[in-house]
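Late entry, written up from scratch paper. The run itself happened at the end of the previous shift, but nothing got recorded in the book at the time, so transcribing now.
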Amino acid sequence: MSSLEIVSYNVNGIRSAVSKGLADWIRETAYDVYLFQETKAHEYDIPVEIFEELGYRHHWFSAQKKGYSGVGILVKTAHSEVVKGMGNARYDAEGRVIRMDIGDITIVNSYFPSGSSGDERQSVKMDYLRDFHQYIHELMETKKKVIVSGDYNICHQAIDIHDPVSNKNSSGFLPEEREWMSTYFNSGFIDTFRFFNPEMKAAYSWWSFRANARNNNKGWRIDYHAASESLRPQLEDAAIFMDVKHSDHCPIYLKIKV
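Output as recorded:
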């Protein structure tokens, strides 16, 4: 039995991340799958030849709005059934979901909306959470082994955020968002990082650009690899690469037996 190594990474602009050494890091690490969120580019603006030279196939799903949202996949493993979008025009216009199959495993890459810009986007975010929950469970009627990776834009528990008290009314840590995460994990998903690191504190995947937050590790864990319960026996390792810096996020890692 071999292993599949998957990285999820909100790059906050794929071209920006490449300019900061992303391709060199991929060359050094050479994982099987890289899932990107917030690519902020149409496919014709992405320097895909860099990734092709590294031996990766690539798939992109961009937002209609230029320089906004977008998801992508680099993969060197044999794969099939790449599907762009979740069949909902409202979210597909923003380039929020792409998925593919590797053998009997379905990997879903999603960039969940942020609500931090105000009430209107917070409302979109809550709608997305509701509709995504329905989408993923409908998908799991036919796909039995599912991994849902990406930037969820939510800290689930107090341990996942540097200051739970002062952020209790902040988008990304609101009670209704955290309740959605609890419902989601209780509906058949495993938070793989917490599966391997149940008590680890100060393990974050995003830091504000303000107030020297990253150097002071005042962060939030808002990026996840969520695995369906059917994959529990195949889980090997999960980690957060907090020292990798091409974005205001850092990469998160999952290793499974295949």
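The two ends are 6 Å apart (CA to CA).
(Scratch paper discarded after transcription.)
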